[in-house]
């Protein structure tokens, strides 16, 4: 019933709420302030005054998806101390992982509200790091184990690997690692072994050398073959080994000589786009629209890039996009 002792019942969790008339009445309450005076008077005759309309509207306020996502992110961060979740992570039944993925994509495209960035930064300053999110998750596992005194062989090996790769890490990554005892290669003692283990060069290394000689880098796709050898897949395996600390020092050195950024701390797709841009620009060929958009995005998001990424871009003639304030300063 909509009426009780001559008064309009406020909507609640009842089946009547789906009645078309109730839906219409709720809409009038929401629009009450913009209705004509005659319409407001007619609504008042059935008990819907301005005060009633405000009460109804307030009771029906539904959080936006953004507000729901932020609330779940706040809850997760309070429980776990970070937002380094996988894309499939659910929290309290909410698809938090996919929601955060969209926020990162929107931030990359410059389509996210500054207030939301501020709110997420307050929950986790590295919720959207310029390095791979998988690294961030590995860091949190190592930090948790370090804090609790439960470091396993896997986590110790990961920390040693970061120390070995120290110079290629983002300064913020180095800052995160310092409390874990990783401050560079010199900080990690070399473990003595009764029997020195020799690592074979592997059949992939000659093919990597041939490709790098021809193209000047090793930023290949997974499907790349060199003289019939699946070089792309082989390099994927070497990167995985390097990141888990299972790649021999000899092979790591050989690959680094061929391409200092064969295993960059930033997303590998970025490295491929960079080399595509560099190759076309050096040849004086026009850039495809997608690659041109990529280049403009790098100049707009310059401050979020790794310093070495900035150095690579500068070398091919790309520079940070001036802000409005900076442009005004140059003009004046």
Sum up the structure in keywords.
Helicase_assoc; 2 strands; disordered N terminus; two-stranded antiparallel ribbon; Helicase-associated domain-containing protein; disordered C terminus; mainly alpha; 332 residues; single chain
Strand content: under 5%
Estimated radius of gyration: 29 Å
Figure out the total of helices: 16
- SSE class: mainly alpha
Main sheet: strand order? 1-2
Q: What is the element string, with H for helices and E for strands?
A: EEHHHHHHHHHHHHHHHH
Could you give the distance between the termini?
Answer: 69 Å
Largest sheet: 2 strands, antiparallel
DSSP strand count:
2
pLDDT averaged over residues: 84
Low-pLDDT stretches are 1-8, 11-17, 189-201, 323-332
The best one-word shape is elongated
Portion of residues within helices: 55-70%
Organism: Streptomyces rubrogriseus
Protein name: Helicase-associated domain-containing protein
InterPro entries: Helicase_assoc (IPR005114)
Domain Helicase-associated: 69-124, 203-259
């Amino acid at each position: 019933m909509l009426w009780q002792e001559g008064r309009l019942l406020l909507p609640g969790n009842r089946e009547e709420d789906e009645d078309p008339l109730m839906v219409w009445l709720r809409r009038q309450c929401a629009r009450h302030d913009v209705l004509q005076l005659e319409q407001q008077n007619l609504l008042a005759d059935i008990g819907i005054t301005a005060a009633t309309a405000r009460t109804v509207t307030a009771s029906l306020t539904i959080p936006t998806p953004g507000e729901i996502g932020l609330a779940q992110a706040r809850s997760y961060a309070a429980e776990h101390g970070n937002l380094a979740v996988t894309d499939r992570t659910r929290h309290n039944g909410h698809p938090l992982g996919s929601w955060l993925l969209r926020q990162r994509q929107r931030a990359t495209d410059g389509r996210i509200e500054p207030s939301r960035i501020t709110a997420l930064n307050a929950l986790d300053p590295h919720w959207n790091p310029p390095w791979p999110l998988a690294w961030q998750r590995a860091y949190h596992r190592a930090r948790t184990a370090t804090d609790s005194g439960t470091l396993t062989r896997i986590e110790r090996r990961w920390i040693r690997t970061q120390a070995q790769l120290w110079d290629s890490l983002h300064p913020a990554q180095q800052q995160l690692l310092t409390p874990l005892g990783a401050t560079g290669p010199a900080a990690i003692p070399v473990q003595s072994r009764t029997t020195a283990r020799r690592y074979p060069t592997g059949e992939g290394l000659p093919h990597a050398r041939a490709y790098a000689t021809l193209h000047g880098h090793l930023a290949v796709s997974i499907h790349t073959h060199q003289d019939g050898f699946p070089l792309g897949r082989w390099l994927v395996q070497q990167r995985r080994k390097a990141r888990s600390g299972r790649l021999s020092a000899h092979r790591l050195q050989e690959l680094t000589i061929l391409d200092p950024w064969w295993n960059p701390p930033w997303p590998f797709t970025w490295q491929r786009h960079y080399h595509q841009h560099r190759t076309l620009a050096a040849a004086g060929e026009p850039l495809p629209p997608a690659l041109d958009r990529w280049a403009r995005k790098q100049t707009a998001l310059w401050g979020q890039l790794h310093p070495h990424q900035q150095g690579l871009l500068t070398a091919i003639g790309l520079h940070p996009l001036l802000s409005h304030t900076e442009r005004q300063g140059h003009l004046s």
